[in-house]
Amino acid sequence: MPVTKNPYLRYKAIDARLRNRQKPLPTIQDLIQACAKETEQEPSLDTVVKDIKNMRYSFHAPIDYCRSKRVYEYTDDTYRFDGVGLMEQDINSIKNAIELIQSIGSSRVSGQFEHAMEKVLTAYREKFPQGNFKRQFIQTDAAKDFRGFQHFDLFFRAIKDRIPVSIVHYSYSKHKFTSRIIHPMLLKEFDNRWYVVAFSEEHNEIRTFGFDRIHDPVCVQGDFRGEQGPDAVSYFQNIYGIYPIENQDIQSILIDISPQELAYFRSYPIHESQQFVRVQNSGRARIKLNLIPSFELIRLLRSFGSTIRIVEPEWLRLEVNENFKR
Amino acid sequence: MKKTTKSYLFSQVPNEGVSDNPTLLRITITPAYTKVDFGYSTFNSIYSNGGWIQISPETYMQAMNGKRQYKLLNAEGISFSPNKHYFESLRDWQFYSLYFESIPAEDGIYEIIEPEFMGDKEEIMAAHHVSGENFDFFHIHLDMQKAIQMREY
Fold this sequence. Notes:
The complex is a heterodimer.
Chain A: H1 7-19, H2 28-39, H3 45-58, E1 63-66, E2 71-74, H4 88-105, H5 111-127, H6 152-161, E3 165-171, E4 176-190, E5 193-200, E6 205-210, E7 214-219, H7 232-237, E8 251-257, H8 259-267, E9 275-279, E10 285-291, H9 295-303, E11 308-312, H10 314-322
Antiparallel strand pairs in A: 1-2, 3-4, 3-7, 4-5, 5-6, 8-10, 8-11, 9-10
Chain B: E1 8-10, E2 16-17, E3 23-29, E4 34-41, E5 52-53, E6 60-63, E7 69-76, E8 85-86, E9 93-100, E10 108-113, H1 121-126, H2 132-135, E11 137-142, E12 148-149
């Protein structure tokens, strides 16, 4: 949103003008001039009148209009449009948080959050006019405009307010559509893809559904069953990725890694259960994972090619090394 | 006949379609319309690149043994004939919805009928559900005990 169209800058200007003890009781023209000075663009009379109305309605600003003198004033001197007063340290923390959200978050959250961020950023710009908001210094790998991301807000609210949701799901593997009632518990991002983790009535257990495979989610009435069984965070504790392989329990996985991969496995453990069983002088090593194998784990292990070798279990060795050749 | 003032959703709808592709997925009854959701997959399609789909604007919903036809008001995700929604491969899919006039929110058995397509033979052969034989759904059971009330978002 261009700064000149941002109403919050005008609200701040109106607020400051109403508080000006040197020039009390401003007219509507005074308020227009105050806004013009702040935004470098003169707003219309209608715009400022609407702004005052919005300040009264949305921010509970006690602005009174004296018809006889045709001036505005605050009827409550204790009212603060800024809300909570912030110390410099608080403002610095907010500044860092906002810049972090802008860098890593703005492409991962959708519409409703942008508006709230805009409010904060407006106040922030005023306090830090030298701030450089255009300079990006963190770049993440977040995908943009992928199928199904428009569902983010609905699922976010459904989780927060514990609302069951009716969805239509298309299975990429079975090539079939199904209609389901789910009770969303967690929004999860993995490998640049978004998923909703939910209790599925049809499966009577926790399941994970990719946003890209969900069509037309709608909120429905009914008791929320997302608190049955394990919580969603615990559900993923023993899994690398999203989709555990059916009928596989938590198990030990031994992997031999070549010297050129040693540093990477030390720096970026695959899973919190990863341990080094042995490290040879040459840099050749064996690691152990303790988790439920998943499709994402198999995909990851395959990506290492011949630089790693699955020692056990045998079925996983075949799946990664042999079946990959099919 | 009960006037619908609330909106209800049927997540599972027993029915007898000619095939399971397209699949009748959900039915929503609101005071303004009845929405019927379908899913179609080109997997196993006999047509090159998955063929195409379309729906006749004359399609209607009707209670079994009833006389009143509930007209098709709108469609999303599928083209009205003679226009077509083309697929690109045998790995495509399409979710689409048909909006009919509002049916009563009470138990009932319905059918959805797409009148016979009047195009040339080649087009009839290529179509997925332009002919009555391909698309029609019968014995659509709506049991209000299984209806879920919708929630405003």
